[in-house]
Write a structure and sequence with these properties.
Structural class: alpha/beta
Radius of gyration: 23 Å
Number of helices: 12
Number of strands: 23
Number of domains: 2
Shape: globular
CATH topology of the largest domain: FAD/NAD(P)-binding domain
Largest sheet: 6 strands, mixed
Strand order of the largest sheet: 9-2-1-13-23-22
Helix content: 25-40%
Strand content: 15-25%
CATH class of the largest domain: Alpha Beta
CATH superfamily of the largest domain: FAD/NAD(P)-binding domain
Distance between the termini: 11 Å
Length: 487
């Protein structure tokens, strides 16, 4: 007899759980807190990029929407072996070894992508943000190559279509307010006054990033001041319900994915905008210039690594500056390399023909300190190393207390632009411990019968940072695991 599964949430992880459960023969009801327009959780706010281990183009071609794209013959995708994925995650672990969850993410990442591809979810090479043209070829960098067509909105739409084709049902405006139990087993949920019974419940309703109260309580520091980049509905409801049953807290609760965001962005990424435009409030081209705080000082090595590996940490670094803001400074030499988000109609910036005037126009910044920092930076730039944004080019600075390691060019060609940014929180890292079937573990180590989880609610996947594109892949890997386990 087939099982009946309830899934709480409707983002990428929830959809993958639903597809997997239906594939395994279960009937599935998905309950979404938001109305139809805001369904999909944080997925709709993403650029739809997914990081996974692959050996070469032969692993990518089956995933492409258009395998006949004429650009492909002049494209160098390179490879991203599992060993490199391991190294990248270890680089953000703060000395911790790879967790069991990270090992699963790495080993199952390619399979999860091909599994999605088998359900009609197709992808496109990220030419605009992950490649540079070099010697007539498109050269990809940073191990991140593919994104869903129409980014996060497209990923959600394709997954929802696959879920519906398999017979899944979704109800909107249906916030789950409690878990129903029989003894220790979870046997359903409460939606307002309605009780909905099931053989298993999968919590896939995100972290607690949209709750200022929980950010202050569980993360501390300056996180209460952060802009919320994603959905307003990820307020920790699932975590709170699971903790109430004694579920094991697991992972780094003060940790989160953050990114530099437009200082004047409204919370929740601009809900008045079409979903595909909400990411335009990100400002992640700092590697092409410098970032200055209120004292006019640099505070990070903007060229430490490809931005895929630094933006999640630099969002936190910006938030820790005086006044919780910074300014990103660029000159005209890199204007054509800045991503579209810097030309977004609602992008805030100041412009001047001289650096002196620019420093005077950066609100909240000590103009003398900023001018001195920029002069010292320009004097320290290596003139004998060529600039090459397709590689870690080693074009850095010499003699500065805080070096810029790569892509350091003098800021000397007007007009000059500066963009004000703050730290924006995307999702939290602290979550629950799961079994090898995606079941939620009690704090004493045993499985809580009937309760599963996936997505942002799985702890132990990320710690002190994350390589870009890993979050959606984690949602697919652990969503599939929970769906199969629940079914």
């Amino acid at each position: 007899m087939s099982k009946h599964v309830i899934i709480v949430g409707s983002g990428n992880a929830a959809m993958c759980a639903g597809i997997a459960a239906l594939e395994a023969g279960a009937s599935v009801l998905m309950l979404e807190k938001a109305g139809e327009g805001l369904a999909g959780g944080n997925t709709k706010y993403t650029a739809g990029a997914m990081r996974f281990a692959y050996d070469g183009a032969e692993d990518l071609l089956p995933l492409l929407k258009d395998p006949e794209d004429p650009r492909l013959v002049a494209t160098d995708f390179g490879g991203y072996p599992q060993a490199k994925f391991c190294d990248d995650l270890l680089g953000f672990n703060g000395g911790r070894p790879l967790s069991v969850e990270q090992k699963r993410l790495i080993s199952e990442s390619l399979f999860a992508m091909h599994w999605l591809g088998g359900h009609g979810i197709k992808f496109e090479p990220i030419y605009s943000r992950q490649s540079f043209e070099k010697d007539g070829r498109h050269v990809f960098w940073g191990g991140l190559t593919l994104a869903a067509e129409n980014e996060g909105v497209g990923l959600f739409d394709m997954e929802l279509a696959a879920f519906a084709r398999l017979g899944g049902e979704i109800r909107y405006d249906s916030a789950v307010t409690d878990l129903l139990t029989d003894g220790e087993a979870v046997v359903g949920v409460r939606v307002g006054s309605e009780e909905v019974r099931a053989d298993a419940v999968i919590l896939a309703c995100g972290g607690f990033e949209a709750s200022a109260r929980l950010r202050a309580e569980l993360m501390g520091g300056d996180w209460e001041k952060a802009k919320v980049r994603g959905t307003p509905h990820n307020t920790g409801d699932g975590l709170t319900l699971a903790h109430g049953l004694g579920a094991q807290k697991y992972g780094l609760y003060p940790g989160c994915h953050a990114t530099p965001m437009d200082l004047h962005m409204a919370d929740y990424g601009g809900l008045d905008l079409p979903p595909g435009e909400r990411k335009n409030y990100r400002k992640i081209c700092y590697f092409l210039g410098v970032m200055l705080n209120a004292d006019g000082n640099r505070f990070v090595d903007e060229g430490e690594n490809f931005r895929n590996y630094t933006y999640a940490q630099f969002g936190k670094a910006v938030l820790e500056q005086p006044g919780h803001f910074a300014w990103q400074v660029f000159d005209a030499k890199v204007d054509d390399l800045l991503y579209a988000e810097y030309r977004f109609h609602d992008a805030h910036f100041v412009e001047a023909d001289t650096l002196e005037d620019l420093c005077a126009r950066m609100e909240g910044v000590d103009p003398k300190g900023a001018a001195a920092t920029l002069a010292a930076y320009n004097d320290a730039v290596m003139a004998d190393v060529p600039f090459d944004p397709t590689i870690l080019d080693g074009k850095g600075t010499r003699g500065l207390a805080l070096a810029k390691s790569n892509w350091a060019q003098k800021i000397d060609t007007g007009p000059f632009k500066a963009f004000p940014v703050t730290g924006g929180i995307t999702f939290t890292y602290g979550g629950l411990k799961v079994s090898d079937t995606g079941a939620v573990l009690h704090e004493d180590g045993h499985v809580i019968p009937g309760l599963f989880t996936c997505g942002e609610m799985v702890g132990g996947v990320f710690f002190e940072g994350y390589p870009g594109g890993s979050g959606l892949t984690s949602g697919a890997v652990f969503g599939r695991l929970a769906g199969r386990g629940a079914a």
